[in-house]
Amino acid sequence: MLVHLEMNNETESEDKLEFQELVASAGVEAVSLVVAKHVRPNAKYFVGQGKVDEIRILAKKNDADIVLFNHTLSPSQERNLESQFECRVHDRTALILDIFAQRARTHEGKLQVELAQLQYMSTRLVRGWTHLERQKGGIGLRGPGETQLETDRRLLRVRIKNLRARLEKVRKQRDQGRRSRSKAEMPTLSLVGYTNAGKSTLFNALTNANVYVKDQLFATLDPTLRQLDIPEIGPIVLADTVGFIRHLPHKLVEAFRTTLQETSEAALLLHVIDAADENKEANIEQVDLVLSEIKADEVPCLHVYNKIDRLEGCEPRIDRDSEGLPLRVWLSAATGAGLDLLSQAIRERLSQDIVSEDLIISATEGGLRSKFYQQGAVVNETVNEEGDYLLCVRLPRQDLNRLLARR
Fold first, then answer.
1. pLDDT digits over 272-299, tens only?
2. What span, in angstroms and rounded, lies between the C-alpha atoms of 290 and 93?
3. Confidence (pTM)
4. Which of 4, 81, 149, 263 has its CB 3.0 to 4.6 Å from that of 70, i.e. a possible disulfide?
């Protein structure tokens, strides 16, 4: 059973179609959808008493195993509703967590999902143990001084602490990898965007990778990194990340902070947008909110409007600002149309700090000359009458300054 509440407050309202897609992605069969209109949620049941009675009758009629709400419920609301419906009740956050648990493949992904689940569960433990809240008294009935609920809460705290320590270890390993790429002067580009915008399809098209792709929400959960060569720039690292969604649970953002750090420390973000989606503007706002939460809103961003093959008369193109800087690229990752324009736009955005210089290097500075060749920065070389090397080099300004500082 699905329950969707339409509210006047836009910031609290949810998308009904997206909710149904989430349910389908979780592998749940929806037997009925109940839609209610309210100015504000009911404190006890979230919906009014009349709707509670209606849902209870429908749930029994359809033999529903679970009632899913397209909103965030408090633990007490869940408890009250379960007593009314006599079946399990879960909110939107639990649904998203379940999808994440199904999709996690890597060790790191499983750790992050488990941490988010335990943090969510810690506030709802009382539901299953209400009959054990009070300690028994009397001879032979005295407990060990701790109720089952207290024991479970303590075990949860220990497990959460253990998971945080293991994820901290993973974070240090990721930091080490980022430092290695930084030493090699290899910029990282991170694909971000609303879930099901086509990030993984674009990732596969650019890198010839074989990342799992499916037309469903949260098909990609575990981050994937691949090296990619961009003409005139050289090798870069492209990162495919988890998709965002409206009102993404805060616990998930917190748990996936290790993964999302690739995004906050990238040289350029490729914000992939479903050009055929009617709600694309609202989706862009939601992605920007999450980027702000993970402190990645200051990272330079290139908007990539994907799936133009689903729009009539839309051709691949680059939209530029008043100074000629690429702002948006329109393409189709599925057909490959416009991928060359994306490569060009990336090259232009990354080469803003790339300089071309003519240098005179004496014959005694062979070491410096070889370093320019190792960087792949030499465009042309000649030798003058004095035997000095005349090099035309093209490379990032910081690399040029670093090499010349060692003369």
1. 999 988 888 988 988 888 888 878 888 8
2. 16
3. 0.69
4. 4
